[in-house]
């Protein structure tokens, strides 16, 4: 089942000065239509309370709401899907758990990761990165850069892989045009917006370059 995938994914993060709800409100008001709620620091009860608040905002603005990793919460709030960061996760099992109507995204770093997700038959899109060094989600993967994305994209067509590729990790207003020029379907941003003194204005600036 083909699903709508935005070319601009906005991810919330744990911040000392702004709640996830406030981040989502700012993002939606600025025009973001795809919100990924990425909170890995709260117990289920607190997550659900905030998810209901976030879902109400997304509903008001017509934005898609994706939750990071918390598969067991997908049916407990008005959530449209889940993004799985574990590259070795059993996506077929997760698809069975969440059902066909929910959107299922997954993380990848290499063409081998993407092939595995494609073979599972469960993924709707792939978040591939990091493009550059990022402090939002520290990891040991070397940055792909534009050459890395170009190399991956060149292998998708001959392999018959038809998954939207979302570039993620270290993407900002200064490099987003360069990233999109590689041919990726879209981009995901977090720190570039959330750590900006004017997050709403930053979303608008990046979003204009994506459209």
Automatic annotation (TrEMBL):
<dbReference type="GO" id="GO:0009228">
    <property type="term" value="P:thiamine biosynthetic process"/>
</dbReference>
<dbReference type="InterPro" id="IPR022998">
    <property type="entry name" value="ThiamineP_synth_TenI"/>
</dbReference>
<dbReference type="InterPro" id="IPR013785">
    <property type="entry name" value="Aldolase_TIM"/>
</dbReference>
<protein>
    <submittedName>
        <fullName>Thiamine phosphate synthase</fullName>
    </submittedName>
</protein>
<comment type="pathway">
    <text>Cofactor biosynthesis; thiamine diphosphate biosynthesis.</text>
</comment>
<keyword id="KW-0784">Thiamine biosynthesis</keyword>
<dbReference type="GO" id="GO:0005737">
    <property type="term" value="C:cytoplasm"/>
</dbReference>
<dbReference type="Pfam" id="PF02581">
    <property type="entry name" value="TMP-TENI"/>
</dbReference>
<dbReference type="InterPro" id="IPR036206">
    <property type="entry name" value="ThiamineP_synth_sf"/>
</dbReference>
<feature type="domain" description="Thiamine phosphate synthase/TenI">
    <location>
        <begin position="17"/>
        <end position="193"/>
    </location>
</feature>
<dbReference type="GO" id="GO:0004789">
    <property type="term" value="F:thiamine-phosphate diphosphorylase activity"/>
</dbReference>
């Amino acid at each position: 089942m083909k699903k709508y995938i935005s070319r601009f994914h906005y991810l919330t993060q744990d911040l000392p000065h702004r709640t996830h709800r406030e981040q989502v409100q700012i993002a939606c008001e600025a025009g973001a239509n795809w919100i990924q709620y990425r909170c890995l620091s709260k117990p289920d009860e607190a997550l659900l309370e905030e998810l209901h608040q976030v879902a109400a905002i997304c509903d008001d603005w017509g934005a898609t709401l994706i939750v990071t990793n918390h598969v067991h919460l997908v049916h407990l709030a008005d959530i449209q899907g889940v993004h799985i960061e574990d590259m070795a996760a059993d996506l077929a099992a997760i698809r069975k758990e969440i059902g066909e109507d929910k959107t299922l995204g997954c993380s990848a770093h290499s063409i081998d990761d993407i092939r595995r997700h494609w073979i599972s038959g469960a993924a709707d899109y792939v978040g591939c990165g990091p493009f550059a060094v990022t402090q939002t989600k520290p990891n040991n993967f070397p940055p792909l850069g534009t050459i890395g994305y170009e190399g991956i994209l060149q292998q998708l067509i001959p392999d018959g892989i038809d998954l939207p590729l979302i570039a993620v990790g270290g993407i900002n207003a200064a490099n987003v045009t360069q990233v999109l020029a590689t041919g990726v379907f879209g981009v995901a941003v977090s720190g570039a917006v959330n750590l900006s003194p004017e997050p709403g204005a930053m979303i608008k600036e990046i979003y204009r370059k994506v459209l």
